[in-house]
Amino acid sequence: TLEPHFTDCISRDLETFRCWWSPGSLHNLSTLGALKIFYLKKDSHSSEWKECPEYIHDNRECFFDSNHTSVWIPYCVQLRGQNITYFNEDDCFTVENIVRPDPPVSLNWTLLKISPSGLSYDVLVNWEPPPSADVGVGWMRIEYEIQYRERNATNWKALEKQPHTKQTIYGLQIGKEYEVHIRSRMQAFVKFGEFSDSIFIEVTEIPNRHGLVPFTLVVIFGIVGVLIVILLIVISWQQRLMMILLPPVPVPKIKGIDSELLKKGKLGELNFLLNGGGLDGLQPYAKELYHEEPWVEFIEMDKENEEGGDKVDNCNSDTQKLLGLPHRNIDGLSAISHPDDDSGQASCYDTDLPEHDTQMLIASMLPGQPENHQASLDAPASETGERPLIQTQIEGPQTWVNTDLYAQVSNVMPSGGVVLSPGQQPKMQENITGSEREAQKGGKKSEDCEDNEGIEDWKKSEPQFQLLVVVPEGSGSTTKNNVQQTSTPPNSPVPGPGYQTIQPQPMETKPATMTDGSQPTYILPESPQSQLFTPVADYTVVQELDMHHSLLLNPPPNHSPSLCQPQHPLKAPMPVGYITPDLLGNLVP
Amino acid sequence: ELYFLPSKNQIGRVSHNCHTSTILTPNGKENAQRIAREELTEVILKLLVAWRDPLWHFHQDMAQHHEFNNFSSNKSLEMSDMVHELRKGVQKVVEKMQMLGIISPSIGNLGTPEALLASDSAEWRLMNDYDLLYCFRRDSNKIQHYLKILKCRIVPEHGC
Lengths: 589, 160
What we know:
- The complex is a heterodimer.
- By secondary structure, chain A is of the alpha+beta class.
- Chain A has 14 helices and 21 strands.
- The longest helix of chain A is centred in the middle third of the chain and has 30 residues.
- By secondary structure, chain B is mostly helical.
- Chain B is elongated, with a radius of gyration of 16 Å.
- The chains are: A alpha+beta, B mainly alpha.
- At the A-B interface, strand 8 of A face helix 1 and helix 7 of B.
- Chain A: Belongs to the type I cytokine receptor family. Type 1 subfamily.
């Protein structure tokens, strides 16, 4: 059995309080007015039981207003029936200890922010303190506790108690619905008030906002990266891009000639090019250079030649060019061109072809000597005379190894021969070697005006003569020692050092016809050996022509030329190095 | 922490006579609002003064008796220090208020040792620890409320 008792006594605002009772199992006391409530207020020892100041029978409640409420003073309540007093010591209390504040009101929430991942968000919850609690005066200090849970969860999550009227909930997940309620209690006290009504928080996914930010970032970074790459390409390939976008306008060019070289004024390279590089276009250019010298004819070169070339090859090429092919170097300025192909390639020792050509050339050189031609034509039959000539001629250039690479073409024969003026002094040794080579060749003797008989003598005799052979290189002097016939010293005019002339045909034929060998077939310059060492002038004047229309470079001043030295007295001394046209006329019958 | 009550085995009993019962204190909000600020301030100071020695002795007892853990001992020391600091603070505030003319300088010598001796300070020695703590808890609550009301009456802004 359960006797009437008090269920609870609560104060909401620390100013008033209420007590509720129940009649218990004794139903007969549940009627109205059957039970009375008395309270005792223990202050200053004037304690007497008083009846409840205000009954609320509907609730079985006894209400103590502010006039009857004293804080910090113990209260005791009891139930009294007809004759029975129901009292329990546990029903004594002080007001501040029974305070349970009302729950806060106006619960609301706002979205704080969504995480970058778009999966969670934070919410700020705010509320108003319970109106019953006089917080404004400071009489009540309330602290709050928020609890939240997912919609269908069973356990509440409680946040830390705090006295402010707003609080943030972190880590809520998008798409889920949350239930939130709040309660309050007095600071430093234990008893909480009732929970507020729940509010529901839910944030649905916002795809645009969620995916937009990272997408825009990606786009921006991509564009920036592409721009940087393009910038780098433009900077590094600036030149090439300029070439592609703005190709250079083609300017007129001469084939084989670099305009840059001309601008730079490199004569050496230019000469080289002119010599052999720009083959086709050189002729007009070269002609411009020598327009002042009309008698100078320029001969085209067929190919590029090495500058200097081999010494042996110089000999070959020169000879071949002279005798076989009408390839000449432009005088003075150009390097000696060296034939690369077979046209002039025949070595000095290759006698077959060059012999033939040589003979033909020689024959053509002396236009006024048809019989010579005949003789020359017949000469191939008898090689003795010719070959020595050829050989010497061929070998002539050999002696000019160390001579200058340049020779000026001082005159060009109408027949095609070229008169060159060497640039340097001849050398004796080469002459000797040349003669030795002749000896080594096995019997092919030097060109000479000797006949076959005098060949041996000629071998042995010191070279007294100089073979006048046109050297295309203009290399120095072509001092070819000719084996003179036994006795007679060479009466050939002294060539300007290293002077070479094409051996006139008649000279060659001479030995063939003259068995005596007294008639020199060559114009042998008078140059003694001593003369060989003198510095050579670049030009030599053709002083006179002999009776055979041979050019005499330095005619002997007094005596008539020996048989081997056909001479042609010149009308007048010539300035060195030049042949005037009238002289040419003299030369050419 | 100010109102921390060490866990005792005794459940709350209501029959208490605190040594500070002689001090007339307003028992409700209205009463506290009605009295003058000077009286209110005086009441506060009286309470604070009355509790200085008892708390000190209480702490001494707690430290000596090792059956209590360190937590209780530290808490008792905290309570003693806190009350001490609070009293000093209130005295300064009162002096300031008197200087500003907010309250009349009728309060004077509450903090002096003479005032302390005047009070019946022997009662608290008879109380057991539980009752002592109970009384202290009640009085500290009073002090807290009175200070709050006083603050809002003097300085109405900031949460009043």
